[in-house]
Amino acid sequence: MNSFEFHCPTKIVCGKNALRKLPQILEESNVTKPLLVTDANLLALGVCEHAIAPLEENGIAFAQFSDVPPDSSLDVVNRVANLYKEAGCDGFIALGGGSVIDTTKGAAASIAMDGKEFEKLQGAEIITCDLDPIIAVPTTAGTGSEVTLVAVVKDQEAHAKLSFTSYKLVPHVAVIDPQLTTSLPARLTATTGIDALTHAVEAYTSVQKNPVSDAFAHEAIRLISQNLIECCQNGKNADARCELALGSLMAGASFSNAMVGIVHALGHSLGGLCGIPHGQAMMLLLPHCVRWNLDHGYHTGLYGQLLGDLRPDKASRGLTPRQADEAFCSELFAQNEFLNRSFGVPITLKELGVTTDQLADVARQARYDGSALYNCQEFSLEEAQEILEAAF
Predict the structure, then answer these.
(1) What span, in angstroms and rounded, lies between the C-alpha atoms of 257 and 6?
(2) Residue 15 backbone class (left: φ over 0; alpha: ψ -120 to 50; beta: rest)
(3) Which one, of 54, 48, 52, lies nearest residue 20 by Cα?
(4) How many CB atoms lie within 10 A of CB 75?
(5) pTM, 2 dp
(6) Which residue of 69, 106, 218, 309 is surrounded by the most CB atoms within 10 Å?
(7) What does the radius of gyration of the chain's CA atoms come to, in whole angstroms?
(8) Distance CA 239, CA 179 (A)
(9) Do residues 171 and 98 touch, judged by C-beta distance below 8 A?
């Protein structure tokens, strides 16, 4: 066994009404005036009240930024950082999906690094200072950003997704409360859920995988596969929502240590150049990238080891490793077709308005995405375009 490191320092508070513990969490974190970062939709739907109510009941002063867009940008990161300083805050509550949590990470990093603009901190371990406390409260079960060392933010001028990686970016506390996700529409539940599934699958097949990340990936895939369809069909099922959120968190912890691969390299490029939401990109690309890896002899045997987690009724007993690989890939395609048929989730690039003349640029940008480094084999520009054409 090669030597490895596994790092997941985030305190996890999980369960029904977990957000009622927010005042206690703030006190333990020595935060006296947090900045609540969220988005306008969650504010309008009343989801933010689950965090605001315990703050007001306990007389805790706070500031609020509720203008994070679905695909956040460097400009928004800087605006959050400016408000934080102006309001005299000493900690963050990031309530929302991956865009909100990543925006919060960016603002906290910018402040910690003497007010440097976040774009100047791009790369791996450029951030060297400890961040003010971040309490991450996910409202989707997808990104796993509440436990990861990664933040992805869009550079609108360059039409590119910028990746920031540092152990300093890992949130201090993650609060998993199922009541925050029960109103999530079926289509968004599906795409964010497959985003989490992709994290676990790519972590398990990454060149940086290790026994601990593998264990998290296995359990994440099991939790996601057992609860995703139920959450799409019956969004009010709090138990299923909680299990799905835990699966997302565990997938996040897995890939935060093992990293991701070709699916994310292509997905980041689709998001930056074509405006495709990240979860949607992951959903339509995952089976095609698994297919490509298998056709080229990569990760053989590993995908089949995940079949029993994805579909316990089709476990690999009696199958050769190659047959189990093929069965796993087939199940991913079948899952997408079911979600498309049942909930109208797009599963082709054409359905999402991507044009054939955009594919070359997407492939070119993906070729140099940092995630590509963790696929077991480097892929060429032509091969990246080959996958995009298959997904078209």
Answers:
(1) 6
(2) left
(3) 54
(4) 16
(5) 0.93
(6) 106
(7) 20
(8) 10
(9) no
